[in-house]
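User: I want to check something. If I give you two sequences, will you return the structure for each one separately, not as a complex?

Assistant: Yes, each is folded on its own. Here is the first sequence with its structure:
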Amino acid sequence: MSAPAYAAQLPGQDQAAPVTPETYVRLACDPAACVVVRACAGAGKTWLLVARLARSLLDGYAPQDVLAITFTRKAAAEMQQRLLELLQHWNRLDDRALADELARRGLPRADAALLQRARALYPTVLAGGTQATVSTFHGWFAQLLRAAPLRFGIPLHFELIENEKPWVQQAWRRLFDKLQAEPELRADYRALVARTGRSTAAQLMELVVQRRGEFMLAAQAGTLAQGLDAPEPESWPAWRTRNLAELRLWAQAWGACGGAHAREALLHLQAALDASDAQQVGALLRKVMLTAQGEPRSARNLATRAVQLEMLRLGLEGDPVGRWDTLASDCLGVVQAHDALDIETIHAWALRLGAELLGCYEQLKAERGLLDFSDLELHARTLLADADVSAWVQTRLDRRYRQVLIDEFQDTNPVQWQALQAWLSAYAGDAQRPSVFIVGDDKQSIYRFRRADPQVFEAAASFLRQGFGAVLLSAQHTRRLSLAVLDWVNAVFAQAPAMAFIAHTTESRVRGHTALLPAPATQGEAAAAATPAQFMETAPRVRDTLTEPDVDAEIGKVEHDARRVAALLRELMQRPCVEDAHGRLRPARPGDVLLLLRKRKDRMDLYLRALLAAGIPAAAGDSEASLLDTIEAQDLLALLSVLVSPGGNLDLAQVLKSPIGGLVDDDLLALARCARETRQSWWQAAQTLAERDAAMPALRRFMTLAEGWMALLGSLPPHDLLDRIVAEGQLRQRYAQAVPATMRAQSLAQIDAFVHLALDMDGGRFLTPYAFVRKLKRGLARAPLPELHVGAYPQAHAAQQPSPGGDGDTWDGPASPHDVVRLSTVHGAKGLEANIVILADADSRPAANGPSVLLHWPAEQTHPLHFSLQLSSKRLHPAQRQLVQAELDAAEREDWNLLYVAMTRARQQLWVTSLPMRGQAQWSQRLAVGAGATPAAVADAFPKLPDGAGQGAIEPQAPATSPAMPIEIPWLGRPQTAPAASPANAPQADMRATRIGIALHALLQSASATARPDAVIEALDAPGVALQLGLDAGEAQAAIHAALRIVRSPQASMYFDAAHIRWARNEVEVAWNAQAGGEPGWGRIDRLVELDDAVWVLDYKLAAGSLQTEHYAPILARYAQACASLRPGKRVRVALIAGDGSVLEWQVPEAINAPRPESPRSA
């Protein structure tokens, strides 16, 4: 379907009409207009919302008059920040530039007074002390409820539950106590467990708690289990009596001349005719009349020609086959009626017991002054429906909202909309009603599991159009997608009629690239194509269960794909393929890449490990990752647990083995042996060993520190204690040295985030470390991973094109320790974008859940019209079948939406991988059809993968540092931007020399780790190196020759000769702070070698003409200064090594090598 890039439907118009981009922005940003915007991914929805916020302030609205709602705290904070940055930017502009800015936001003619007002907004907002309310729905609801009258029954100082699971577990304990006291309730529970199993019973009951908002509203409206009240079915003995004569005729006919199937049916029929128990009669008749799948048995095997003649001879009237079909269908009807009654009975038990569990949960919250998110929504719905109370609350908060803006409206759930609608309805016909602006995209509605319902968007648009005269705007023009990505998106979604997809256009002129990599051959396909000899080599063999671990075949496929993705990224990082803001191509950087997965469990860790093993910095970067799942947070939590309760042996073992303690396995074994021999706890044994065993300095150090920290437990709050632990224990330095360089920034950020968690948790009101530890261990707190900012976000939002703007900015900044590949689930990637998106393992789908809630709640209704529990997809009540089909249709639509979200994260390149699937490979089939080519054909596109990608093509690289190394590089604080290794006026090397230089570094790094680097390099195959490193054959040969000349050079060979080297490392990162002289920064030493007389800092240069030390003196001095304290008494020497083997030593200033006292740590 095609449509204008921008369209508007004004009040009084029956349909939308095309408009210009300028008109679109002018209508959307007008604070006096009520506006509903539907805009595609990358169309600038957030830009529009911030622009309208600024326009509202410019038009005289006070900050307290403005309410902006979004769906995450992070998004709310970003929106607030972007508004202030925009106002600050306006404050600094001259008249002409400011007039252009205002024109881009719908004010084409700005006079001097307007320019002065715009320039004054920033200081006015800062000086006013009151900012606009920018929050989430739940944050706004909580603000309202804290000011609500007492008659609403809301706890005066309530605490918000962010993780309800631990409280539900406590509610279970209360329910079990109640079951002991109430025999009738206990009988229901036992019956439910007997019919469904304990696990399913618990899931059914917890569904009531999880969907308590809808459950309570349906209960109040009397629509619980609507339609699940089937009449009493005919009993099986009664059905047998009614059909007894005919059943006996069939028994006689089968006994006289029936075949094998008939004789088997005869046995069950005779038993059914003789049985007295009703349930047994029913079970036997099912076996006679129905198949195992529950369908009527065919007459072909039971009513053969001979049986038919016998039936007629016995006096049967009519066609025997027809009579059999009628009898079987009649039996099926009775079976279905009994099944419906059975489901109804189980459903009644589950609802009653679920309501009891919910009652225990509500009682627990009431006793402790707790509210959860559902409580916020329901209470806000009640409060906002009362116009007088709502106005009173706003007045009390000094808020009278005249501008209401809501972002990502497609994620709104029905209860939230009911609360908002109840409030807005009170303004019907009121001239002082607020101006409402909502923006969203139905195609990005992917949170049904959080109760989001896209039909709410349609209901809201209709309500605002009828009651508020809203303007309806739509935008199908994106500023994000490259031409190649756009073409693929349009082609894929043209085959999704349920989405009513409108083809997009794009502002981008970047060509981009897309590819669907084929799934590797399945074992069966490989076997079919193999020769007999190959088949025997690859045929499965019997595993030795005593010596070989069981390997999950599915996990093996994922690991294969993870290595393939790592190989692809290494290839993209070696060749110019990303277009910068000036239209120039450059190699990809880690920060350019967003790796998307459909499932987190059993997937993300495998891809993360593969990237790190390939030397590619990567980190989980989505909203679903938890700080408390990281090893740094777990180590710190274990340390606090040891301090407050020293008897925990497992916690102590974890801390001692971590970088906090620094013990090795032999130390832990000695500690365990001492504890066993002395029959003491590990803590007591550690005290004993620390006092008597001088050979365990690491244990003595830890115990001294831990006892000091333990003495502070009663006097310091958790945050201050943790701050002291991090400083005194040198945790930042220790973790920086213990983790690979690619993970260093993430590791340090996670330590800082855990320390801040102690301050942020519940406003810092937990004053004891014990309470802090207890809350974390009981799962009563949630903490997102710290965000690693990839590049710098431009301060001047004016750089963004305003018609209509962009959701994000292309990053062209320098590489930094935060330059990492981000891994995310598709659900967690909303709001993210990247130059390169890799959708890995595209066909994996989350496992089908068990029981679920069936809900029918039209958006225009104030309560659900139906609420029931679905036991399973195969056990449905007839009244549920239509609802189940509606759920399947909604799930199918959301699956398309999820694919849309995944594809539209890509600015320039989109790569998709898939794995061999047992079932239907749904996404890869959609993508292949949409691309208009087979997967194999698409995979042939540039750039090609190296041969053997995913099959060991990328070897794991050793971490840059290790806790066991003889020499430690001191970590001198957070690394900043690395300075250039050449002066600004040095000639720019051409791309060919750059690629050869990179390859030279890689070859020397790999070969120097071996005993005979010259033999290793000489044995290299130039075509193989070319494929591995993305070079042509000539470049690979040049790199090999240069590396060989260096390691064989009389001047340079000693730096690679294992017989003379005491210790060496490659690619060593060093950092310096401002106190070390000048600006803080970081750099990477190509090779660091300790010989008998000196520590050598080596820097490789491809061309001999580059050996001009004055060009590199500043950075070489930094390197020397950073390494000067490594070996007191040894000089630091620095040399440049060229590709022809020549060596030029740079004279290190004497001040750097001046004698200094030996530090205790070096000693």
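And separately, the second sequence with its own structure:
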Amino acid sequence: MARSRMLLLLVLAVCLHLATSVRTQARFFLPEAKQQQHNAVVEQMEALGIAPFQTADAQATWAKLKSDSSEFDLVWSATDPPFATLEIPHQFAAKVNHLPGAQLLTSPDALHQHVDAQKKKHAKFYFDFVPGHFELPRDRAKLTNAYTEVRKKAEFEPKRSRDAHVYQRFLIRESAANSNGGQAKKAAMFVTEEDLQSKLQSSEFAGKNVVVDQYVEPLLLDNHKFRVGFYVAVTSVKPLRVYVYDHPLIQIAKAEYPTKLKVESDPAAYNFDQYIAPWDFPDLQADFHELPSATRKGTNAWHVLKRHLRKKGVDTKRLQDEVDAAIAKVILSSRGNFQAEQAKLKRARTQQGDGSPSDLSDSFFDLWKFDFEIDDKAKPWLVGVVSNPSMEAQQSVLATDEAVKKQLLHDLLNLVGVHPQARLPFEKFFRPSDPKFCSDKCVDKNRAWDTACWSCPGWFSPHVARNLFTASTEYARRGNFNLVFPSLEQELTQFLDTEFSEYDIAFDRYMRALSNGYADLPDFPVSDRAVVCVYREHCSNHGDCVNGMCSCDANYEGRTCYIPKDVEQEELHIQQEAGDTGGQDAETWKERVENLWHGADAADKSNRPGAEEEMQWSFLMTARRCDSEHINQVRFTMVATSRVMPIAFLGLLQENLSLAVVEGVTYLSVFLLMLHVHSSGKRNATMLIAALLQVMIVELVFYDTERWHGHALVMMVSDRLPLYSVLLQAQLYYIAFVAVSRLRIDPFFQPFAMGSLVVLLVFPFELLGSKFLWWTWHDTDPMLADRLMGVPCHALFYYYFFAFGFLSAHHVLRSVWLVGDYYEEEHWQSEWSYVLLMPLVSTIFAMGFLILGYHSTVHLIGIEAQVCFFVLIGFSLLLFWMADRERDAPDVQKVLEPVDAYDSDWLYSCADHAVNQMVFLHSLVLVLLVLLVDPMNIVSLGHHQPLGNCLESESFYSLVGLQHSRKKYLCVHNFDEPFNLCNYPVAQLLYEDSWYMVCGGGYNNFASFAALVLGCAVVLNLLFFQILKRPQRTRIVSFRKNML
């Protein structure tokens, strides 16, 4: 009896010991001496209730994993573990924050070699997102070949006209074994081998191991380079699970990026050892509704940056997809390496009663920071992978990211499942199957989200179900981590370097079933349900993505939340259903959009029979709400698919005030023009008509496929040519013609003066025309590549030589065709023949002069267009000045004839002449526009370069017979014009259509624009005041008199 009692007490003691030995609090272990990198992590773990584990001998070594692994749940190390010598116990349940084989990604050299191998295995196209990397002196020969390769690629790059070294730069920095903790070495830029040798001999790099990376020409954020670091967690390799945190680190270079980056430029313009936080950056501050702090994350900086980039025309959805794809491809193609390195781990010898060894596939995880730089074509480039990124809070001028880092650690630890409570008992879920339940509920294989079906026949074996249970419960704890693999699309699977295992298949099946399980639309079958979103951006930023489908905000609807709800219409519908209203037809929100833009006539047309076929519109409405702190407008945007209708005047004032003002001033100037023509006689009237015809020829023949005009109030030629543009150019011809006629210079020199004056008059219009979207140019035409402050030199040459040819033709025709110095009624046939012949003869002359003075020098000889243009203008002004110095010579006075263009003094003062007033009015308006109108608020609807296939090209010939090639369509993902597509969804743009809407961009340098326009205004007014106030006569030439 006593023996039985002793046995009972022993059993109770053992049970009590076992009960008390089951830990309910998580513990972490630091296998190395505590370092500064540990502080933020340790602080956050303790805040989450994860206690530190102290060994009995107070020794922190990796050897404790073998002896004490059952006493802690997490192993956190600031350095790479010694996997080669590490011994893992037979039963191991702790999590280690490093993945065996991760050096393949975190070592820059290993990463580059790995990506190069994948390019050969798959195709360069799929892995073309890592810049070239060279270890010196090992890769000296490869670097030499890279010099030649980049120069060939940049040889025909249009941007070379503005930056001779574009796409030819490299970075040199001190070599590092791997990128640990995020402290990258400071880099220096170079271009040539001579630059490199100079750097190698400098004190900064002399005697050190260095590496060279190809430079990424950046997409600038208000003239600042920036970098985005995405936090990536890999929690298992069986099945492989890759998560990306939704709050990346954004670093903005401290120094402003120079117009031309040179070797001696400030390195702070392209290094990020010191950087500006996004909430401290002026261009982004307005979108931060809440600054981050020590306790609150604040507004997501990545979302703010993407919103800013969308305003600049960047397709941020495509950008995010490319980032996610690059991350997934690098990791997926490395899984075989991870598994191989994990298989090499030593396991402790088995002891009697140990049972089967634990599976290590979920025992290792890793957190990396993938650093991306965005190039000038909005393509992301992976420039480095940082192991164990710093979690220390960074205090900036206005805020701190402490709460962001804390939340990142919080979500990571929850995702990994450090707390014992997070490890739910699998056995409670995987119970023996109920045949009736299986036959009734689990016939549909899409029901993989239901754990009750997993044990049914034909579903999952126990070991697969256990693994799937771990993965699915982890996914439920993901917090702000987004799962990028496995994805609902199968495109990325091809990059796995191992077979798609049964565990991968099970988890992929579960994720698809989970998405399908939320199908609640009766007309949209579960089996056919397509995933439409991953991020909020996929829901037009007006809804949240819930398991692959958009859950729209209260005031939006549609599958991607792009249709604003019409609250009034909904209320009306409810009232109609309740019988409170009659059967009157209600105006839809689409009709109201049409009425806003087109006036009442559009509404009337849309209500008549057949109007739906006559006018088909695709609408995008971006609603902005008003509150007490900021006022947002409501903008309705349209893309026409067929018939074009004129824009209402109020709509034009709202969307492009500058165009409406210039058009109105042009029509007002016609009054002044007619006053001058009336005072000067009919000979000037016929010349003006000839100038109008000349402008029409140039616009319709020479600019038909090079320039597109924004839609104005009055359009001609199938809505492609605005009336104001023709009148404006004719006015400038007339002003220059009258001014030249007032000069006392030899007729041989007059065309040079005419061309120079026309260019001087037209330049400020061209300068603001492209910026304010009065017109747009072909994006990839090599003729238009050389630009002066955005103005194609090609257009300036055409203005000069057509004006030159116009006056030359005028002198020839007047000498051989016209009779007398003034308009003669009895010779009206000759007078009007002059009107018809002038455009033809001047065009022939202009083409000849263009061949000699432009195409031959620029395209045959190879002189840069800007150099040739300034030489031409300088030479013309020299001849102008030389001819003007001869005006008082006696032999010149003897041959003076009556002036044929009288400048009226209708207001009794030379300063108030009609021509002077036109010059003053135009220049005043341009100055006011550049000072008062922000081009970022401009929207231009009309014909532009057609959208289409980015790879389709077309050939054309120049006047000298040279064949050139250009892209046939505007590539919506890659164009270099100063506008954007108004954040319109790229997938909804109509390809091979030229009628769409574009939005303006900001100034690169406002001071330069303002100075040029103001300078032109002052010079023009002073110059024409001095020329047009002269009462003297001017010389003419008459072949008829000489022949007689």
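Because they were folded independently, the notes below concern the second chain alone. The CA atoms of residues 91 and 358 lie 5 Å apart. The chain has a mean pLDDT of 76.
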